[in-house]
Amino acid sequence: MLMKRVRQELDHEAVRSGRKTNANMSLFSPETAAKTRVKHRFGGVCDDPLEVLMRDYRFTVDELASLLSMPVTNIEARIRDDEAFRLDSQAEWKLHDILNLANRAREVLAETEKAVRWLHKPNRALGGATPMFRLATPEGIRQIEDVLESVSEGLPG
C-alpha cells in the first residue's frame, strides 16, 4: 500500500508541475527523487528496499530482476502495487542483503552519489567486475564486503 501511495503522490506532483504527462510518468524519476527522500526522512516512513535501491542507488528493474533471479514482470508488479505481489522469502532476504551492502558502500564512501558510482563501475579488486553484478551470489557479496572493509581501512579498493 505504501509504494502505491508514494507512486500516486509522485505521479500527481509530476503531472501537476508539467514535468510529466500521464503517458510517461515514472515513479523513480530523477526530478522527484530528492523530494521523495526528504519527505521520507522527515515523515518517518519506512521505505521498501526495492524502492530505495531504485530511487537512491539507481538500480534498474532489469538489474534487480537479474540479481533476484526473477522475471522483470514480477518486479514491475511489486512496484505497481505493494500488496498485490510479494517476493518469496529468499528473494526478500537477498533484496535486504543488496540494500545493506549499498548502504554500507554509502557509509564507507561518505556520499550516496559516490556509492552509486562505485556500485556501477568496474572494480580492479573484483577482477574488473562491477560490484553490482557480484551481488548476485553469496561469494560475490563476501568479496564486496571485503573490498568495502579494505576501503574503510584506507586501502585502495
Automatic annotation (TrEMBL):
Q: Which domain of life is it from?
A: Bacteria
Q: Which organism is it from?
A: Thiohalobacter thiocyanaticus
**Know the name of this protein?**
Antitoxin Xre/MbcA/ParS-like toxin-binding domain-containing protein
Antitoxin Xre/MbcA/ParS-like toxin-binding domain residues are 105-152
Q: Name one Pfam family in it.
A: Xre_MbcA_ParS_C
